[in-house]
User: Which sequence fits this backbone?
């Protein structure tokens, strides 16, 4: 089974979960998927989630009173884990352009697709999970 | 071979704060109406939907006591869907993300709702005709 995960929402739950919750979910499922040659997870970043292609630092720690967060989310690391696990990671070019995000800041391993090519990307998947 | 389809739903919203929760339950109900087996993976806030200690309360502004108010509870909706599935000889499976349950302290669930993890979502999806994910906003 090939599942295309579409991540559109960004930075939800990042502070309290100390990760990007869908990127976490994908990493968990990948441990099962990589046990065979049939299953595959792909990730498509659209909308606000295209900001994830630009992350280079760990999120700033939250401070409330004397309490200081010690393990803030590291989205850059999460994306790197997906790429190193051979999960194809795509980003929509027009969504980058709409936000003035520079192509040069894209990390290696992320594939840029145009909106006009999304239909073919959708068609090659058995299931599409839109988060 | 059975012609009955199985549908998987992954849901992230908590019991009372979002209208998506109501829509989600209506979709489950409609899936059973359409004679589909149903599998649910409750993620993040949705892990509290089956919490057994949800309690009804009265509402003084409404002028009704607890019994009269009959406040909706998601655990009751789940139980109702379980019963509906049984009557129709359909399966209705429910797994809560265990870590999400721990975070919220909602370990005490109604019968038929079990603890699991992302691997169960993948298994559910693999066994299903299709999967609907409803993320939080």
Assistant:
């Amino acid at each position: 089974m090939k599942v295309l995960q579409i991540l559109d929402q960004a930075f939800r739950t990042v502070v309290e979960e100390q990760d990007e919750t869908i990127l976490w979910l994908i990493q968990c499922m990948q441990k099962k998927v990589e046990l065979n040659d049939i299953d595959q997870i792909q990730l498509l970043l659209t909308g606000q989630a295209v900001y994830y292609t630009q992350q280079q630092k760990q999120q700033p720690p939250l401070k409330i009173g004397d309490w200081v967060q010690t393990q803030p989310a590291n989205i850059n690391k999460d994306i790197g884990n997906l790429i190193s696990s051979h999960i194809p990671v795509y980003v929509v070019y027009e969504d980058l352009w709409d936000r003035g995000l520079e192509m040069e800041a894209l990390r290696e391993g992320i594939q840029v697709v145009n909106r006009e090519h999304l239909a073919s990307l959708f068609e090659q998947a058995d299931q599409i999970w839109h988060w | 071979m059975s012609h009955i389809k199985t549908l998987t739903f992954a849901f992230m919203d908590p019991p009372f704060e979002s209208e998506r929760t109501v829509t989600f339950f209506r979709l489950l109900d409609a899936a059973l109406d359409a004679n589909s087996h149903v599998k649910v993976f409750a993620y993040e806030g949705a892990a509290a939907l089956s919490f057994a200690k949800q309690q009804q309360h009265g509402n003084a502004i409404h002028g009704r006591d607890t019994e009269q108010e009959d406040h909706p509870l998601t655990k009751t909706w789940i139980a109702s869907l379980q019963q509906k599935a049984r009557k129709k000889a359909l399966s209705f499976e429910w797994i809560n993300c265990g870590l999400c349950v721990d975070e919220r302290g909602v370990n005490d669930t109604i019968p038929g709702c079990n603890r699991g993890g992302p691997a169960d979502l993948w298994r559910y999806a693999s066994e299903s005709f299709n999967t609907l994910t409803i993320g939080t906003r």
